[in-house]
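Morning F.,

Quick status update on the modeling queue. The single chain you submitted on Monday has been processed. Sequence for confirmation:
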Amino acid sequence: MQLIPHDPVEGVYRTTDDYIHAMEVVGPQRLLFVAGTIGLDPSGAAGKTLEEQLELIWNNIRTILASADMTVDNIVRVTSYLRDPSYSAANAAARRAALNGRTVPTTAIIAQTLSSDWLVEIEVICAA
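Structure tokens below.
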């Protein structure tokens, strides 16, 4: 499988340093679509802070990916659902840390989550 980032700088607005416009995936054998993942611990309790929930989310994503013999290196797309626009910077920082600085296409959407305790929900698409 080959990943080819596409981030044109002419004819379209520029991206920031934490995402790219598109990722071409050539020859994948498998695709994994991960449902929106929230910041709950194994007992089902929500993290008390935004940072704790982001840490739990990325730990949960890593666990889900491992069940499919994948890692965060297989992530080719991230969508984040934030309860508040002020969560954007922390969400981007957590994503950059989780992906070890690797950039992928990403979107952040401000949305009401199903429970007011859930501050962020993140879904990913992976290829292998």
